[in-house]
Amino acid sequence: MRLREQQGERRCFLDELHVFADPSNPQSMEFIYQIWKRIRKYDGSVWGATQQVEELLRASDGKKNYGGAVIENSLMKMFLPLAEKSIHDLMTQAQIKFSDSERKILKPRKKNKGEGIFIYADKRVHLLIEPTEVEWELMGGKPKEGEAG
Question: According to the lineage, what is the superkingdom (predicted)?
């Protein structure tokens, strides 16, 4: 977790958010949920990222699914290609509705690297992320054909 403050704005960045979603310690995810709910009152924002949707959605105390609540309480959401089960879990446990064409974009294929869905409030756009040469350099170089990237 990293907190950055610029000109009075508070920003919290949480990478690998699923790590906080340990079912044996639901208090950690409850705390994250409370941050998500309240930070805007203090001129702040919180960003979270995970590749483990299933683990994030397991964060529950038996009454509330905190992982699902965090996703639902996010004004902006970006989804990159996901396993079919993760898409299903988002639709059933986090009440995210994906159209057939959006599910096709999110289903991993060789030809859809850099594609995704960006949701802002009730607006949705099809993303296509094309890194510049400088960005590829910062990420360690452009992958060769056939390599993960």
Answer: Bacteria
| Residue 98 predicted with pLDDT over 90 | yes
Amino acid at 15: D
Two structure tokens written together for 10? 């508070």
- pLDDT value at position 97? 93
Options 3.40.50.620, 3.40.50.300, 3.40.50.2000, 3.40.50.720; CATH of 1-74? 3.40.50.300
What is the location of CATH 3.40.50.300 in the chain? 1-74
CA 35 to CA 47: how far, in whole Å? 11
CA atoms within 13 A on the CB side of 63: 2
Whole-prediction pTM? 0.80
Which pLDDT score, from 0 to 100, does residue 100 have?
96
Distances (CA, A) of 78 to 10, 87, 96: 21, 13, 12
